[in-house]
Design brief:
The protein is an all-alpha fold and 415 residues long. It contains 19 helices and no strands. The termini are far apart. 50% of the residues are buried.
């Protein structure tokens, strides 16, 4: 008599676990797309023009996806960040010029992030603006301390903040009286006056951020496997998923900002809500105190997460372009100095936010153009270099973003 054959149970597939492990770096880079600068442009756009600029928010998010993937592709294939690749490729004079403009962009980034966080701390706890800016710097040190020890907890903390912002604006949409028909019509491009055009270009200009491009290439360097094409292909597939999930979440948050402003403000006849403080007060008066609290908490989460990311990207920029490394305390002190001066001088924080977005538009071209040139070079990327049709598509995206930002500057600076 034969022994019964033992039936082996099949183990559950490990694909979900692998997919979850792939998520992380793009979430850190995605913070740049939901920083306080986005709050300012989306709130003003929704309150002034309702849902008519919603298509701009969605289009800007779609453009950001291929740009961030290209940055990650450079890091995965070469094991180098974009600043490091620039230092190896270009002459010292060109490298120094790229580094200096990147440092200016880091300071402009900190202005937006520090001002937004300071406003949130003032709204929640009544902390004066100069003290709130200094407290923001201290809190960002704590976040970077987590990142210095282990990357994964830092990535998970950033992802949790993004989810918190998404949940907060989801609640606000439910309480803001969204008009479904008008929302759908806002998905279709339409005619706009000069002010709406300025706001639309501001939304685009606040989306593709230079420091996010530099940062993403550095965050994925650990996924590089020298000489192993199969592992690199696997890492690239995983990063596509990471970028898709993270930037979709960021796009949902951005769209929610505008939808809340359109429903709560524009739908109630409040067409001039432009500052973050006005938005908080209007939500409290027209929707309820809890809505105002949720808005302030979402703004605080955006400011804290983006302020830490700004310092981290600044360190990557300095290391990559110059090969030098300075303590994070010194680094933070240098880049936060303009924000402290603005707070002490008593400038309007929302206007400082808008000005910082204009300054940041100067940094789009110096980040995008080298990225396209390097990732299209077979001597650097090997068989993973961009194919000609891909280069044409990416080149069109870069040209469009640069042209839109140049037009934004012309509208702002020319009377």
């Amino acid at each position: 008599m034969s022994t019964p054959r033992r039936v082996r149970r099949r183990r559950p597939a490990v694909v979900p676990v692998t997919a979850l492990r792939a998520l992380g770096p793009a979430f850190v880079a995605a913070v740049a797309y939901v920083d306080p600068g986005n709050f300012a442009t989306n709130i003003e756009g929704g309150s002034s023009y309702g849902y008519s600029l919603l298509w701009v928010v969605i289009a800007a998010g779609l453009v950001a996806m291929p740009v961030q993937f290209l940055s990650a592709k450079l890091g995965i294939v070469t094991g180098r960040s974009l600043p490091e690749a620039c230092r190896e490729r270009y002459r010292p004079r060109t490298t120094r010029a790229l580094w200096l403009q990147a440092e200016v962009m880091a300071m402009a980034t900190d202005i937006a992030e520090f001002m937004g966080t300071a406003v949130a701390l003032d709204l929640l706890f009544g902390i004066p603006l100069p003290a709130a800016v200094c407290l923001t710097g201290a809190l960002s040190y704590l976040m970077l301390g987590v990142q210095a020890r282990r990357h994964r907890p830092f990535e998970m903390a950033i992802a949790a903040m993004l989810c918190l912002m998404c949940a907060g604006f989801g609640y606000l949409m439910l309480r803001s009286g969204v008009d479904g028909g008008a929302l759908v019509s806002g998905l279709v491009p339409g005619a706009a006056d000069q002010r709406a055009t300025l706001l639309a270009l501001g939304i685009v200009g606040a989306t593709v951020m230079p420091h996010a491009i530099y940062l993403h290439s550095a965050l994925v360097r650990h996924r590089h496997v020298a000489g192993n094409g199969r592992e690199i292909e696997r890492a690239l597939r995983a990063e596509r998923l990471d970028v898709l999930v993270a930037l979709t979440l960021a796009g949902v948050i951005n769209a929610s900002m505008l939808i809340v402003a359109a429903g709560a403000f524009h739908g109630s006849g409040l067409f001039e809500v432009a500052s973050l403080e006005d938005a908080h007060a209007a939500l409290g008066a027209w929707v309820g105190p809890l809505a105002a609290l949720v808005f302030a908490l979402a703004l605080l989460a955006a400011g804290l997460s983006s302020s830490g990311i700004g310092t981290l990207s600044g360190q990557i920029v300095m290391e990559g372009f110059t090969g030098a490394r300075i303590p994070l305390v010194v680094r933070r002190g240098i880049t936060m100095a303009p924000a402290v001066l603005i707070a002490v001088a008593g400038w309007d924080p929302t206007q400082a936010l808008i000005l910082s977005q204009v300054v940041l538009s100067f940094g789009i071209a110096p980040a995008l153009v080298p990225l396209l040139l390097i990732t299209g070079d077979r001597s650097v990327m090997g068989r993973f270099a961009n194919a000609r049709p891909v280069t044409v598509v990416y080149g069109g995206i870069a040209a469009a973003v640069i042209a839109l930002n140049a037009f934004l500057l012309w509208l702002v600076l020319v009377p």
